[in-house]
Amino acid sequence: MINAIWLGLILIGFGFAAAQGKIELVTSAAFDGAKTGVTVCFGLISVLVFWLGMMRLAEDSGLLKKIARLLSPIVTFLFPDVPKNHPAMGYILSNMSANLLGLGNAATPMGIKAMQELQTLNPDKTAASPAMCTLLALNTASITLIPTTLIAIRMNYQSANPTDIVGTTLMATAVATLAAIVMDRWYRRKFVRSRPKKPPVHGGPVSSSQSELKG
After folding, report:
1. Taking 60 as the threshold, does the pLDDT of residue 200 lie above it?
2. Percent residues over pLDDT 90 in the chain
3. H-helix segments, the chain
């Protein structure tokens, strides 16, 4: 669907440019966009490499394990249907730790592995389980202490104070995460209530009414 939307936008742009006799502007915009993309990528590399290195140092020093222990009670509350010792828990904790540091690129592989592990617990392989929906909501809204990528972009465009967004980013992501958790709890309860009840197990003790019918 996304590919179709982008293709439609490109074709519409070509159509309007051709109708106005300014097709050369499309070519110019394409090259300028490619140049800007490369420039931004090079600007991001240094900052991302730095924070990925810090992430490795935090992992080797045991800091990530401490963060994981700190987040463990929260993760257990958010994912009550996932066993504590299941491999998915480790990937979920790593994903949340990376998101806290604003390392979306480092968090993505951990999120994918967590989803794969959660799929092994999913009784219905054709639909996302509640735990998978929770992970997706938290990964999208995740609280960010240091918005590394945004800081790098602002530095690349010569911002006077690239770190000014730290406070507002923290507030915005905190509100988004709280909203995601509230909605996740609400939909979980709705899912539990709408789930069909299991039929009574036959073969148990016979009630007095049943014995009278049999007699």
Report:
1. no
2. 5
3. 2-19, 23-61, 63-78, 87-100, 104-121, 130-141, 148-156, 166-194, 208-214
